[in-house]
């Protein structure tokens, strides 16, 4: 491994801005996901309602519908990518404040509306950030850039997850959300001081061009449909296992909320950051296909650890080990997966194409939650059987990955990927 070249990739300005924007991108997710789930659980909201609340994430799966607007139109400040980032970040700050002044038990409908607003703004921010990252990173920087972006993203989740779980019993859940609004200013700094893309804006000539041509361009490639299926399936097992993991730790293992904040949200996300960075470094040597396969297998295998917890006597050390291994594998898999998505995007339509691909990837996280809640709440499937099912769910994606090996290796050989 060429460590000098690796260090040069770590230390340039583009990577520094990607770290700030990764934090900004990752901060909202937990606040409408597991952190909100924890708040609702503590306030004794019923399990069916908690499961239904996972549906607030649906804008993540449909963000490609308005992504062409971000490709075509340029805000009055900071240009096409950075201008949209700034607008959505300011909106998120306001929405976090509104959530902090509400309550999931006393104003459930209002909290649902606010959560949908946060997810919509977050999804729009992600469109702009993903396109910007795809535009400014050189081909040789994709692996490391993806890994560090994922690391910063998970650091933000560590903040909006672990930090909130630890401080909420002290300062209150609402005040914790207000603190998260302050921390969104990190993304604002990234938007204000990020460099412009070296190859220019490459703006579509019309909205019709921005809507139609990204799909025409992508579907004209060999095995395009199979790439879409692979993107849906690759993270399904990992996402399925994580849908109700916080509720499992609280209600089944009967763990203290602060312990969960420190071990699951804190240590778990911390090791996932290390896993993502190490995965990016391994990608420098293994290449895209072998990284995806190795990390995907690890994601599937580590789900079995939760099955062990479900059938064993309570052990804090075993719980910590399972959480650590699952998060390391998840961090590595996500780094490789983001690099795959970047390699499939044409720079002219990077907002729309990346939005479509990442929305497909979110299908499992969004729509498996209600299914998991229903199966467990009606005792159709116990917790041990549920975690075995999540491991099995990972196998179709790995099989398709193996069948797609020649096409993925071709992306690795083409230094420009699909960005032509």
Overview of the molecule:
The chain is an all-alpha fold and 420 residues long. It has a single domain (3-413), classed as Up-down Bundle (Growth Hormone, Chain: A), CATH 1.20.1250.20. The protein has helices spanning 3-11, 13-31, 34-42, 47-53, 59-62, 67-72, 79-100, 108-136, 142-171, 173-183, 185-193, 207-219, 224-234, 236-242, 245-252, 257-286, 288-302, 304-311, 316-343, 350-361, 363-377, 383-393, 395-403, 405-413. The longest helix has 30 residues, at 142-171. The chain is globular and about 60 Å long.
User: Helicity, in percent?
Assistant: over 70%
Helix and strand succession? HHHHHHHHHHHHHHHHHHHHHHHH
Shape field: globular
Instruction: Give start-end ranges of low-pLDDT stretches.
Output: 415-420
CATH fold label: Growth Hormone, Chain: A
Q: What would the keywords be for this entry?
A:
Growth Hormone, Chain: A; 24 helices; 0% strand
How are the secondary structure elements laid out?
Elements: H1 3-11, H2 13-31, H3 34-42, H4 47-53, H5 59-62, H6 67-72, H7 79-100, H8 108-136, H9 142-171, H10 173-183, H11 185-193, H12 207-219, H13 224-234, H14 236-242, H15 245-252, H16 257-286, H17 288-302, H18 304-311, H19 316-343, H20 350-361, H21 363-377, H22 383-393, H23 395-403, H24 405-413
């Amino acid at each position: 491994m060429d460590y000098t070249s690796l260090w040069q990739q770590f230390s340039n300005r583009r990577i520094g801005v990607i770290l700030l924007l990764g934090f900004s991108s990752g901060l909202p997710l937990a606040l409408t996901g597991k952190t909100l789930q924890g708040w609702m659980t503590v306030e004794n909201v019923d399990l069916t309602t908690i499961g239904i609340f996972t549906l607030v994430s649906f804008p993540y799966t449909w963000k490609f519908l308005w992504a062409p607007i971000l490709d075509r139109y340029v805000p009055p400040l900071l240009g096409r990518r950075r201008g949209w980032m700034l607008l959505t970040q300011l909106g998120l700050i306001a929405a976090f404040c509104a959530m902090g002044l509400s309550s999931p038990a006393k104003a459930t409908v209002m909290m649902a509306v606010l959560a949908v607003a946060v997810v919509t703004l977050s999804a729009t921010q992600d469109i702009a950030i993903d396109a910007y990252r795809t535009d400014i990173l050189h081909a040789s920087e994709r692996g490391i850039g993806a890994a560090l972006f994922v690391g910063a993203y998970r650091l933000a989740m560590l903040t909006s997850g672990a930090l909130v779980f630890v401080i909420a019993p002290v300062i209150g859940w609402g005040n914790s959300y207000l603190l998260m609004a302050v921390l969104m200013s990190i993304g604002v700094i990234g938007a204000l001081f990020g460099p412009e893309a070296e190859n220019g804006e490459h703006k579509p000539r019309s909205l019709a061009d921005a809507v139609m041509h990204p799909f025409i361009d992508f579907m004209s490639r060999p095995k395009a449909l199979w790439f879409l299926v692979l993107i849906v399936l690759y993270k399904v097992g990992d996402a399925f296992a994580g849908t109700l993991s916080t509720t499992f730790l609280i209600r089944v293992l009967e763990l203290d909320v602060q312990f969960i904040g420190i071990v699951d949200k804190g240590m778990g996300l911390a090791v996932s950051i290390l896993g993502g960075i190490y995965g990016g470094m391994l990608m420098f040597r293994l290449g895209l296909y072998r990284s995806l396969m190795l990390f995907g297998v690890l994601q599937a295998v580590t789900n079995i650890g939760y099955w062990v917890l479900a059938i064993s006597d309570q052990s804090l050390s075993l719980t910590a080990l399972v959480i650590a291994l699952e998060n390391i594998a998840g961090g590595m898999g996500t780094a490789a997966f983001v690099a795959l998505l970047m390699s499939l995007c044409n720079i002219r339509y990077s907002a729309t194409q990346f939005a479509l691909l990442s929305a497909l990837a979110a299908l499992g996280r969004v729509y498996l939650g209600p299914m998991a809640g229903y199966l467990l709440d009606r005792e159709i499937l116990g917790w041990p059987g549920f975690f075995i099912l999540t491991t099995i769910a990972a196998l179709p994606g790995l099989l398709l990955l193996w069948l797609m090996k020649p096409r993925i290796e071709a992306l690795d050989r083409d230094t420009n990927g699909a960005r032509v």
